[in-house]
Amino acid sequence: MEVSVIGSSSLAKIRTSWSELSSYREIRFCNFQKRVSLLHNTRSARWRNSGLSFTLNAVQSSPVRSGRLPRRGSSSKPKSLDGVRVFVGLPLDAVSDCNTVNHARAIAAGLRALKLLGIDGVELPVWWGIVEKESMGKYDWSGYLVLAEMIQNAGLKLHVSLCFHGSKQPKIPLPEWVSQIGDSEPSIYHADRSGNHYRECLSVAVDEVPVLNGKTPVQVYQDFCESFKSSFSHFFGSTITGVTVGLGQDGELRYPSHRQLASHSNILGVGEFQCYDKNMLNRLKENAEATGNPLWGLGGPHDAPSYDQFPNSNHFFKDNGGSWDSPYGDFFLSWYSSELLSHGDRLLSLASTSFSDTSVTVHGKIPLMHSWYKTRSHPSELTAGFYNTVNRDGYEAVAEMFARNSCKMILPGMDLSDKHQPQESLSSPESILAQIRTVCRKHGVEISGQNSVVSKAPHGFEQIKKNISGESAVDLFTYQRMGADFFSPEHFPSFTHFIRNLNQLEMFSDDLPEEEEIVESVLLNSESNTHMQAA
Fold first, then answer.
1. Is the pTM of this model over 0.90?
2. What Pfam families does its record include (predicted)?
3. How would you label 305-335 residue by residue, b for 16+ Cβ within 10 Å and e otherwise?
4. Higher per-residue confidence, 482 vs 43
């Protein structure tokens, strides 16, 4: 599920939300409706009187220095539970397609708030389609360099996600020159059974095929990583501590098999196999012929359901007697998953090699395909590329791949619990998470965690704490994602409470800044810099 980000309809809301927090002290005992009304009237009037307003236009920002953080008593930083570092993701569209910083003032105020709260750092999505937009080898890192300096000046660490995919919301396409190639040769994209191409990432079958103006995608990704390393070298070690390499749809190691909810409910359907582009079909045909069964290479399973359908709507995924549990099913699913694993291995190896001479750690992300986990066939995992069924552990080979490349694994869904899933989905996020953790421990792969959605319910934060502490401790947890919902009065106080509860303090609790001190300092800093920019 995609998290809300700062967009045109919510920019004003963020201004109001931060204004609400700044006057929190004088109305802390008021009920929520009175708080909203009072703060809107007082703080919004001050913005209007200043003659300033936030606009949708991208802002080219100068770095904002954080200054001294207000603390009562000791200024030492609290140590997190079990040494867990906590990061917060920046908006997906933090940098515009014109390479300027979107919502620069809001982000600057947000960075200040995170620092005062004791957050260790932020995660920044860096988009292939923005940096290398116009032509192959022509890189423009300017917007991201400005953001990196803002983050450094705020005293936060930075984890960079290199996004070799596109986004539908907000709209961030692949580079223009790649899209032009795709217009004339759509087989560079994955295709489903109906011939519909998914244009937000390239097919795993073209990794080593020179389809990009004489270069292979792997070569283009390699050049991108080298340019990034050169351009941001002065941030490595001091500010940039980690890099995630994008592996597929939404940055995860997966086929783009799930594109819509079931039409008759809010439950995810089983998805569709993505093996119908020309290059995937050629590889399937070769593999079938090599095993002596050429008829198995004519296409994907003919009896599999479509995207929004449930497992029993057709024969392939049926628990008892389904084609998945046949010699043909084993052949196809083994081939389909091996293609994805080979793709992941190539990109993790590329990133591990590229950054081997730096101090950063390399990460890759896999999805948590928890729908239908309680069935025997696990259809959502199968269509996404993970050959994991009641009879077979599909994550063993994934963990081996991460271990081989000395990479850490990012797992989303740390906020999900079984009891809050629709009963009809036969879902079990807790079971699949436990399964993946087990094979990672076996192969010595370290896990980093993420949530799936900005949580406004206490049980989401409770589940996160359970999943990242104690015997389940992770080294890094990234909360996704900064934006309108994140700083809303319905969410931010709960997030603040979660962070305070997560921390094991080596000081008295009154050594920490109160919440109103945090937000007042943020607004002071924000207004000061706003007036400076206006001048």
1. no
2. Glyco_hydro_14
3. bebbbbbebbebbbeeebbbbeeebbbbbeb
4. 482
